[in-house]
Model the fold of this input.
Amino acid sequence: MVSFLGRTGRFAIDQIAGLGRMFSFLISALVFAFRPPAKIYLIIHHIKTIGVESLSVVALSGFFTGMVMGFQGYYSLRKFNAESFLGSAAALGLLRELGPVLSAFMVTGRTGSAIAAELGTMRATEQIDALESMAINPVKYLVSPRIIAGLIAMPLLTAIFDVIGIFGSYLVGVNLLGVSSGSFFAGMENSIVFHDVYSGFVKSLSFGLIITWICCYKGFHAPPMATGVSQATTEAVVLSFVFILVWDYFLTAIML
Amino acid sequence: MIKVANLHKSFHGQQVLKGVNLEFALGKITTIVGSSGCGKTVLLKHLNALYLPDSGEVFIDGVDITKLGQRELYEIRRKFGVLFQGAALLDSMTVFDNVAFPLREKTRTGESDIKKKVDARLEQVGLGQMGRKLPAELSGGMRKRAGLARALIMDPQIVLFDEPTTGLDPVLATSIHQLISRTQKQFGYTGIVVSHTIPQVFDISDYVAMLANGVIENVSPPKAFCASESPVVQQFIQGKTEGPIQVL
Done:
C-alpha cells in the first residue's frame, strides 16, 4: 500500500515537473521571439511550411466537413420543419467549433508531426548541439520562429476551412437537397454575429500556439536515437490533440 | 589556458567521470583516447559547456565556464570550433550555407566577404566545388571536411574534434588526420581530439591523454605514451581483452 502510494506520488510529481518544464520552454521561446534580432526570414519560411503546405489538406477536409454538415443539418432541421436555418446552423458550427478544431487537427497531423520529427532528428544528429557550440541559441533559432509562424498561419487556415466548409454545406443543402439559396444566406446573415467569428479566431490562435509549442518541445527534447524520434513524434501528436480538446472546452465555456 | 579540475559527471546514477584533472597545452594537439563508452565525448562536451558537471571546474583562459550565465558562456563559445562525430551539418542548408552560417548569425560581415572567406575555407579542406551540394549528397569524409570548414570559419582559438575519423576507411582517416594537422599548423589553434584510431592519430598529436575508469590515467607525448608501463595504457594499445580495462 505504501509503495503504491509512493509510486503514485512519484508519478504525480514527475508529471507536474514535466508540465513545469514545458511551460518554462514556452516562456523562453516567447521571450526570445521578441528579443532582437528578429528572424523574419525564418518566420516567413515556417509560415510556408505550416500554412501554405497545409492548405490543400485543410481545404479538402473543410470541404467534406461542410458537405457532411449540409446532410446532417438538413436531416436534423427537417424534423422541425426548419430546413431554412441550414445556412446559420452550418456557419455557426463551423465558425465557432469545427473550423478551429478540425483545422488544428489537420495541421497537427500534417505539420506538427513534421516539426517534432525534424527537431528530434536534429537532436539525434547533434545539430542542436552544433548550434549551441556556435553560440547560437537553439530555442531562438528553431522554436521561436515556428511559434510565431503558427500564431500567424493557424487563424488564416481556419478562415479558409470555414469559407470552404460553408461552401460545401451550401452545395449539398442548396444544390442537392433543395434548400432555397436565399434562406441559406439570409439565415446565416441574421444569426452570425461578430462574437462568433471572434471566438473562432481566438480558438485558432491558441491552437496555433499549442501545436507549435508541444511539437517543438517534444522534438527538442527527444532522446537522441531513432526510437526517440518516433516516440517524440507520437507523443507530440497525441498530446497536441488532447491539449486542443481540453483547451477548446475551457475556451468554449468562457466565450459562450 | 584550458584546464579541467576534479570533474565529476554521472548519468542516471552511472558515474562516467570520477574526478578528471587535465590541462591542455596551448597551440598544440592533445588527443584523448580510451575504450568505447569510457566518457571521452562527455569530457569533450564539458570543455565548451555543452554538458555541465555534477562537480568540478573547467577553466578557459582562467574563467570557470561552469559558473557562467548564458550570455557570458556564448562569448566564451566564440573561441571554439567543434567538429562533431557525424559533422552535424544543418541538413536543410547547402554546404556553403552551413560554412557561412556562423558568420551570418554572429557577425556583421557583408555577403561578398562571406563568400570569399567561405570559398577559401572550402578550398582549404578540398571541397572547392561542393558548396552547392546538400549534406545528404556528400560522402562521410566530405561531410567531415565540410564540418571542419565550418568549425574553422570563425578563426577559433580552440577546436574540438569528436572522433573525426570514426566510420571512415584508413585512407580517408589519414587524409582527415593530415587535414587537422595542416590546419592546426596554419591557424595555430589548440586542438583537442577524441579518437579511437590508434596508432595513426599519434602522428598528429603533441600529447596523448588516456581516460580510463573515469579518470585520466596517463598524459604524455605519443612516444612516451606508447612506452608507458601503465597496464591500462598497454592493454589499450595492444587491444587485449584481459587487464584492468573492463570489457563491457
Remarks:
- Residues 97 and 169 of chain A are 15 Å apart (CA to CA).
- The mean pLDDT of chain A is 93.
